[in-house]
Every structure is written in C-alpha cells, then in structure tokens.
Amino acid sequence: MIVYLNGQYIPRQRASIDVDDRGFLFADGIYEVVHSYEGHLFQMDAHLQRMEHGLCSLYIAIDDVQGIREVAERLIVENSLTSGEATVYVQITRGSAPRTHGFPPAGTPPTVYAAAKQYIPQRDRAKEGIAAILVPDTRWARCDIKSVALLPNVLARQRAIEAGVADAVFVRDGVVLEGTSSNFFGVFNGEVVTAPKTNYILPGITRDVVIGLCSEIGVPVHETPILEHQLGEAEELFLASTIVEIRPIVRLNDHPVGTGTPGPVTRRIQRAFRDLVSDLKSSTSV
Length: 286
Ligand code: PDD
Description:
Elements: E1 2-5, E2 8-11, H1 22-26, E3 29-37, E4 40-41, H2 44-57, H3 67-78, E5 85-93, E6 111-119, H4 123-128, E7 130-136, H5 151-162, E8 167-172, E9 175-179, E10 183-188, E11 191-194, H6 205-217, E12 221-223, E13 226-227, E14 236-241, E15 245-252, E16 255-256, H7 264-282
Parallel strand pairs: 7-8, 7-15, 11-12
Antiparallel strand pairs: 1-2, 1-6, 3-4, 3-5, 5-6, 8-9, 9-13, 10-11, 10-14, 14-15, 15-16
Helix pairs in contact: 6-7
The protein binds N-(5'-phosphopyridoxyl)-D-alanine (PDD).
N-(5'-phosphopyridoxyl)-D-alanine (PDD) binds next to helix 6.
C-alpha cells in the first residue's frame, strides 16, 4: 500500500508521524473521507471546500488544498483501485512541535497524510436497514468542523455495538441531530426532514446530495429540527454519509420505525443516488 505523507508517496510501512505531532497530542487537525467509484472521486469539490472551511476555522494554513485532488487521484492509481469502490482518507494536522497548548511557531509545517483503500459496500444494510439507538450528544459546540477529535463519536458507536445495533444517533437537549458518522433524516407525512446546518452538526456532503436528489424527484425537504418526542410519528428514518451512502434505520431504541422495513421515500432516494453514481462512473475523467 502506497500512502502520501508530507509531499511523498511511500509504502505504508515507511510512513511515520513524529510523537510531537499535534494531531497525536491534541487531536489538533481535520480529516476528510472521499468515496471513489471505479476511480471517480464522488463530490471531490465539496470535500475540498469543507476542508478549506475546517482549516480556516482552525487557523491552519495550507498553500494548496486543491492539490489534494491530485494526491487522491494518484493514490487511487498507485494502489490499483481504479475498479470497484475505494475510500480516500485525508488528514491534516497543525504539525509537529514541542507540546504547548498555544500554536507552534509560525512556519511550522502542517502534517498532511492521505491513504486510499478498497471499500466493500454492505449492500444488505442498505437494502434491509439497520437498528440504532439514541444517545446523549456529549460533543463540543463546533461539530461543523470535521475535527479528528472523535472521542464522543467513538464512545457512542461502541455503545451501539455493545447494545447489539449498528449505530447511535446523537440527541442534544431533546433535538435529534446526527449519527456517529452520518447525517440523520426522517420522513413525516411523505416529506423529508433533517437538522438544519448549525454548529451542532457536520454539514455532510451526502446530506447536500440527498437534498438535491429530493428536489429532483419531487420530494419536499425541510431543514428544521427533529425533536425526540416526534420520532414516534416518523414513517421512515435514514442515515446518509460518504461511506454508507443512504442507510435506512428500521428499528430505533428497540421499536420498529414505520412498518419496520425500509420505506418508499428512502428507497426512491436510494435509487436516485445509485443513478447519480452510475452517471459518475460513466463519465470520462478520473
Ligand atoms: N463521517 N456527521 C458526522 C458526525 C460524520 O462524521 C459524517 C461523515 C457525516 C456525513 O458527512 P459526509 O456525507 O460528508 O460523509 C455526518 C465520515 C464518513 C467518517 O467519519 O468516516
């Protein structure tokens, strides 16, 4: 496996990070995950734009964020991932410097790491749906930054695993926000509802794609808060992310959602999503 680290393409075994890296010491950095279909990067522009937002919010200066596109494309080719699906992981930290909370001296180069690996989709989960639980949201108040500080997400996912379900959904002050690594959607009276873009959710790229697809197929969408006590009225629930695409939730906190099977609105959106991916796969540029 060839990875990218600070300007070099090297075997994964040779890639090493300094123990003073601020990503290691403070989780002082951001990341992105991009989905590749047959060598085509899905929504790369949007991922780069979100990365720019994150870096800017954290005052990490990177000369050439757009250059990450080339890095991702080269990793796909170097690792023979141009057929099938793959994910590209990119992480940028504030770099390496002796530990002190304040920023390191000006000119400290950020650490830039990227790796691509094969992804085998779990189509059964997309088709049959998953069970999930609600958990209190213990995260910070800047969930709009795709920070590598993911401890609350890790603990919530582990709680789901130990409860025998696939995922957990964060609830803050009675408002249902998002999954541990995905955005959350409900269908009420045939219309899609999802949390508005605030500092309490990650502005998901797939979330935007879903909203666009809904308008194309004529499903109304409301970006308004979903309250926990309204969940019993939901006809359908689903999660959306770069990795899982669109995944129905058919059981929540041990209660069936709607009929207990993926609903018609979710399935329409899934079909529209597959069509979009097929168009991407048949496009010429890699
Ligand atoms: N997670 N919300 C959270 C908290 C996330 O971590 C993610 C993505 C999303 C969906 O965003 P997008 O559609 O841009 O992937 C929402 C990535 C995939 C991860 O952590 O692996």
